[in-house]
Amino acid sequence: MSQVKKVVLAYSGGLDTSIIAKWLQDEYQCEVVTFTADIGQGEEVEPARAKAQAMGIKEIYIEDLREEFARDFVFPMFRANAIYEGEYLLGTSIARPLISKRLVEIAQLVGADTISHGATGKGNDQVRFELGAYALMPDVKVIAPWREWDLNSREKLMAYAEQHNIAIENKKGKKSPYSMDANLLHISYEGGLLEDPWNEPEEPMWRWSVSPEAAPDTPTYIELSYEKGDIVALDGKALSPATIMEELNKIGGANGIGRDDLVENRFVGMKSRGCYETPAGTIMIKAHRAIESLTLDREAAHLKDELMPKYAKLVYNGFWFSPEREMLQAAIDKSQETVSGVVRLKLYKGNVVVVGRKSENSLFDESIATFEDDKGAYNQKDAEGFIKLNALRLRIAARKRQSSKV
Q1: How many domains does the chain have?
Q2: pTM above 0.70, yes or no
Q3: Does the pLDDT at position 174 exceed 50?
């Protein structure tokens, strides 16, 4: 093994990273520093401290990053209405750059030149973690155990854990749990019966939401207030970005909102099947598009829609800290200067329905759009010239085709 004196490990306290902490100590004979981020996964992160201490780890960082995650990563992404391949709201993808950022900051703080993570050699996260780290600390060394060791199955990992007395939560006899990732934006599920795309997910798998069939028979109405593209209040009450997301997850989950089951194209080349619960994100993207529909100029809105797939792909592939993502973000943020107002939503059995929107910056002019007497606000005769000018090239081509048949 190459000479490593101190390594900072992105440590969740779960199966993979608990084993990695021990493995790094044994294989590299190095000092391990653990970093555990609370980004709203909904589980207590402090137990990770006891696990790390049990392995003799002395430098342990456990940090509450929920507000930074929501404010500086999720909210900017939702200004772009980013969706990957038409469905995925990028819940795992957007968390990785923040974790990478803190990993290298802690490495610099403790004098380490190496970081480590628990992402597998088949997945996207290895790319996201490492691209983020290299963008911020270009000479950092990376240890990715999944690309080195022979513990290439969940069963082997749990056998290793048992051999080294590493406690594992959610263990069901010898059956491995789903591979799950959670944060303020979503929770994802992979593995197990989900590896066959034909299998329907088991109902007990879902953790954040009731099924739409079991959701209340009475709809829930909420109002979201926006300032420059960001939600600032729920039902008139000002809340921080993280708190807004926490509340929307609760409300959305109670109404069966946010479940998704999809097969996606990973950056490394394979297709994978995953299930996701994204209650807050599902509500947020619907509401944001609603307030934009009222306040954005047509061509600005259409240009945003053209840029969005590129932006989403950059986030999915791990290029958050790239100059092209920052360039796109600047354009998107410029478009949001007028995106302020209130959106009213009806949540009912898995559906998010926009039932009202208003804004002082509204570009909707009722005197022009009305089907009643517009009092001369719009001259309908103007449409004739507009249509003929747009039809000019079509008419020329049609005449050419007709003359060639003669």
Answers
A1: 3
A2: yes
A3: no
